[in-house]
Amino acid sequence: MESIQFSKPTISLEKSDYTEIHKIINSGWVSIGVNVERLEAEFRSRYKVKHAIACSSCTQGLVVVMKAAGWRNKKVAVQPFTWPSTVYAIESNIGNVPVFCDIDPETWLIDINNLPVKAYDAVLAVDTFGNQAEIKTNKPVIYDSAHGFDLKDLGHRGIAEVISFSFTKVVSASEGGMILTNDNRLAETASELRRLSCRMPEINAVIALRSLKNYEKNQEAKIKIIDRYLKSFEFKFNTQRIQSCTNYSVFSILLDTPDERDAIAHALKKSGVEFKTYYDPLVSGLKNIDSVYSRILSLPVYPQIADVQDKICDIINAAAKSASIAQKIRHYSSSVPTPGKRYLKKSGYLDTYLRKQL
Q: DSSP characters for 11-36?
């Protein structure tokens, strides 16, 4: 089996797209032109939101939104179970400091109830792996919706939301982002900051527009792959609990023990199948985050893996079975009387003896 990437963009351009790209290059107008305007109009219409501002990345979009919202010298509640860009955006605005908060152990979303109200001034919530976050607080909230495309409340949460169009996302522009807000004043300031620092190239907008048109088809294929995983696995595991809705941006399973997760990860790596064990927490010591991170395994779910998915499942099932047997051996080993254990180990029959007890 050839090496399998963890993620691969499902970008499928048509002849008209290449014609438009050629036109862009020849025109000399390479950013914030008619294609960017079309993309922004698509989002305003799709989500019934007042303002959609295309930018170069979700990260820069978050930096811009915080600056436009006047977030300076703020204590910002955020989960450290996230991509580092989330915290980078906080710290890029003068005087802001992250206040790290644990997650719900089942939804993997920030659990703001873990913090005293006086501990933070604002919240930067994350739609973890496409699971919609819903924050109930009187404090101002911005949503890092990097994985949040097409969530049911998109465009109507907090003071602003920012989506990612990177190559790993369900809609891709190769790279890019989109700020959504219903705040006129914030939008005016964010638009100017975008113009100064993080314009979206026209070519990226062409790619995003095509990706939008292909979204439903690609999403249907992804859900079939996820369903196939769920029906094929022959071991005990948990999945992320969906709070209200998800776009299945990332598919992850939670194993019973770190040893079992590591055994499966080792087998996949040995077979050339890329996976992720993220997010690597930005700080340690938060109980739920540490527990989830030690047992999580994220798997490839893009449509192109359909032909090899059965082989991937076979690798995972075999590794899980071996890990289970090894765990039972360790358990039974502790119950064998010491003199007998010493003899069996010395004669090389300890492992054989224990396997017969299973």
A: ----HHHHHHHHHHHHHS--BSSHHH
Inter-residue contact 281 to 293 (CB < 8 Å) = yes
**Residue that finishes a domain, picked among 178, 193, 212:** 212
222 and 175 in a common domain: no
**To 10 degrees, the CA torsion angle through 50, 53, 69, 181?**
30
Quote the number of domains for the chain.
2
pTM of the model: 0.91
Predicted pLDDT of residue 337: 59
Instruction: From residue 148, give the alpha-carbon distance in Å to each of 12, 20, 42, 283.
Output: 22, 28, 16, 24
CATH number of the domain that residue 174 is part of: 3.40.640.10
Q: Which pLDDT tens digit goes with each residue over 88-136?
A: 999 999 999 999 999 999 999 999 999 999 999 999 999 999 999 999 9
Identify which of 278, 302, 78 has the alpha carbon closest to the alpha carbon of residue 211.
Answer: 302
- For 330-336, what is the mean pLDDT? 55
Determine the Cα–Cα distance for residues 207 and 130; give it in Å rounded to an integer.
21
Asked if residues 354 and 330 have their Cβ atoms less than 8 Å apart, the reply is: no
Containing domain of residue 145, as a range? 15-212
